[in-house]
Every structure is written in C-alpha cells, then in structure tokens.
Design a protein that fits this description.
229 residues
C-alpha cells in the first residue's frame, strides 16, 4: 500500500520528499549524497535547460566545456575562492587500482599510482576557466568573452535532500570577460534580468533582484548579484 502524502503544514520536509518520490522524479543512489535523476525528472531539467540556453544565446553567449578536474595549484592560486570551498572539495589522489593480494576479489588503491599533483573535482570552474582565458585574451580586441558552460559540479555535502542539496548536481555557469568594470556590471545586470525573467515567466516563481550581503557573497567576489524568492 502506497504511503499517503502528508500536508505541507504538518511536515514540510516529509511532504517534499514524498512528493519527489510519488512523482517519480528522482531517488537516492548507491553513492552517499548523490541522486539518480529519473526520466521524468530529467525531462523537466531538459525543458528548463532548453529555455535558458535559448535566452543565453539571444544575449550573445556561446557554450563551451571545461575539464571536470582542476589541478590543486590552480585552485589554490585563487586563494579566497579556494578558502570558500576547501571543506566541500572531493580530491583525486591516485589514478589506478589493483587487486588486493591479501583479499582475493577485492581492489585497493595502488600506492605506486599516486598523482604528482592532486586534482580537485570542480566545485565551480573559475580556476580552470580563467587559466584558459589568459591565453585567449591578448588585448582589448579579444573582448568581451561571453561563455556559458552546462556541467556537473561536486560539493561534498553529507546532509542532502533530493534536488535541493546533493553532493553532485547539474547546473550552468556563465563566465564573461570585459574591457572595463562598467561593462562587466552591465553584463551582470543583464543576466540577472535573464534569470529573473526565466524564474517568473517560465517557472511561475516571483523573485526579488538584488545584492547579497557581505557575509553571503560568493567566495572571492567584490559583489554578488542574486534573485531571491
């Protein structure tokens, strides 16, 4: 017999989890903190992605893809960014497994396959993207750069909830470069408008646009612009 759906008023958390389950959107996976997005749930993501992608391209953005792994030296070069994510990072230290001589059928990490430099599984892509941009930008004539990336990121969350907070999640991140601060702010405000339009007209979710407080800013940012419901 299926479990009855509780009311939001009685138990909001249980109501949410059971709603996701009954709608067959996603389920917990064998990987702690990660979820399986089921076909109906992924179809919703695809529709959101298609709508946003069209809006991004109408503003001149192009899609690109950057590596999942970020060398630790690049990551720590952005000190404030690294400090903000340090406690959430997944780190790759070895590149090979081998059979355990003491336990037939079992595998262990090969101690001789240690990487010369650890790789961070991206919690965000600033480090690798801006290391790439420095080779693309030789003068103001190469600006602006308007790049968007659809990707997955990992932030090692142990207290998770389907779709709202998981260790791995799907997202998009736009990274633009400009000749002046004024142009950068103009672009930021334009994209803030894109996000708010998407939220309100596509998702039927009214939002308020504004700036985050200093304590809530993205790690390393001068300012963080946001939409809040």
């Amino acid at each position: 017999m299926s479990k009855e759906l509780p009311t939001r008023e009685a138990n909001y958390s249980e109501w949410y989890n059971e709603l996701v389950n009954k709608a067959d959107l996603a389920e917990h996976s064998a990987v702690k903190g990660c979820m399986v997005i089921k076909p109906y749930g992924y179809a919703i993501w695809e529709k959101m992605q298609q709508a946003l992608d069209k809006m991004f391209k109408e503003t001149g953005h192009e899609n690109a893809y950057f590596p999942l792994f970020v060398p630790k030296s690049l990551f720590e070069a952005e000190e404030t960014n690294a400090e903000g994510f340090a406690k959430e990072c997944a780190v790759v230290t070895h590149y090979r497994l081998k059979s355990d001589p003491n336990n037939p059928g079992k595998l262990i990490v090969d101690p001789e396959a240690k990487l010369t430099e650890e790789l961070i599984v991206r919690p965000t892509s600033e480090a690798i993207i801006w290391n790439t941009y420095k080779g693309w930008i030789q003068s103001y004539r190469d600006l602006p750069i308007l790049i968007n990336q659809w990707a997955n990121v990992v932030r090692w969350e142990m207290r998770t909830r389907l779709f709202l907070r998981t260790a791995e999640f799907l997202w998009q991140e736009g990274h633009t470069a400009h000749a002046s601060k004024a142009e950068a702010i103009e672009e930021t405000e334009k994209m803030l408008g894109v996000y708010s339009t998407f939220a309100e007209t596509f998702m039927a979710m009214p939002v308020i646009k504004g700036l985050k407080t200093p304590n809530e800013r993205f790690a390393g940012a001068d300012e963080t612009y946001c939409i809040e419901q």
